[in-house]
Specification:
Blueprint (H helix, E strand, L loop, with lengths): L1 H22 L20 E8 L2 H7 L8 H17 L3 E7 L2 E6 L10 H18 L1 H5 L10 E8 L2 H30 L5 H8 L4 H12 L8 H5 L1 E9 L5 E8 L6 H6 L23 H7 L2
Antiparallel strand pairs: 1-3, 1-4, 2-3, 2-5, 5-6
């Protein structure tokens, strides 16, 4: 009986080996052409996505100038969907049609394969942007598929990482101040695009602030912080009701450049558990983005 059982085991093992051998083919050598794109260990990974030809996309879909709240909320929501999927992202930062996702230096997602990380982040962001379009744009139909490109950059030190985020936030201020002036000149003063560009040529920030206030009664510092500073997405613990808390991605509109932000959110760089966060009184109980995220 024992000999028969051993014989059956050997026969089955032989069949399994034959099946495995048959599954391989002479064509499998092509796998050897795949590049080894594993990302260097112990480096901060930034994946940045950018809208392709988004000026055209915004015009076709009647985005408001200089900022479209629906479009920005949709970008933030799609980015939050990415953060929910990849828990090794400690922070995301968005402005206009771009988003930067910061993977912690200890991240081992997809064994740190660059192509896998970049393609999955980009495809999930883009599909979320399309899938949730109607949540923010209602009955306005999506006219054609949006396209985003993506790249990754590595930063060896925390200082490099913070300088990168400071660079992106400084870019928000420069671009948004210019665009706010430009579109007010075009839409309210009736200037042509060329005339508006000529009027703003050579001006510095103080000149643009003065123009907005003197000609349009706009105090730039009173515009929504999301327009002026971009959106920071963090994972935090928030209070749902008197007895329940939940971990959720939240938007913060703050200054990334100053030390104050990093001290208030000191769990980020060492990658500790998300801290409890209480929204300002004017955003109680939750901002719209968080309400939407809690519903999915």
């Amino acid at each position: 009986m024992l000999l028969r059982s051993l014989k059956n085991i050997l026969i089955q093992s032989k069949r399994n080996f034959q099946r495995t051998a048959m599954a391989k083919s002479k064509f499998e050598y092509v796998k050897s052409f795949e590049a080894d794109d594993k990302i260097l260990q112990n480096t901060w990974i930034i994946v940045r996505i950018d809208g392709k030809n988004f000026h055209k996309f915004a015009n076709v879909h009647n985005f408001e100038k200089p900022n479209d709240l629906r479009g920005l909320n949709l970008m933030n929501f799609a980015a939050a969907c990415v953060m929910k999927e990849f828990n090794e992202i400690i922070l995301s930062y968005g402005q206009s049609d771009e988003y930067s996702f910061v993977f912690h230096r200890t991240a081992n997602v997809y064994n740190r394969r660059a192509s896998k990380i970049v393609s999955n982040v980009n495809s999930l962001f883009t599909s979320s942007f399309v899938f949730y379009w109607n949540r923010w744009f209602g009955d306005q139909k999506l006219q054609y598929p949006p396209c985003f490109d993506a790249r990754y950059v590595l930063y060896p030190t925390t200082e490099n990482l913070r300088d990168y985020l400071s660079w992106r936030q400084a870019d928000v201020h420069i671009n948004n101040l210019y665009n706010t002036c430009f579109w007010n000149l075009v839409l309210k003063k009736g200037l042509t695009n060329v005339e508006a560009e000529e009027k703003l040529r050579g001006t510095v920030s103080s000149d643009k602030n003065e123009l907005l206030f003197s000609e349009f009664g706009i105090n730039y510092n009173n515009l929504p912080a999301m327009y002026r500073k971009g959106t920071i997405l963090l994972t935090k613990q928030i209070k749902i009701d008197e007895s329940k808390t939940r971990k959720v991605v939240i938007p913060i509109y703050d200054d990334l450049i100053r030390e104050k932000f990093w001290k208030e959110h000191d769990e980020l760089l060492p990658r500790k558990a998300p801290k409890f966060y209480e929204f300002p009184k004017d955003l109680q109980p939750f901002p719209d983005l968080v309400k939407e995220l809690l519903s999915i």
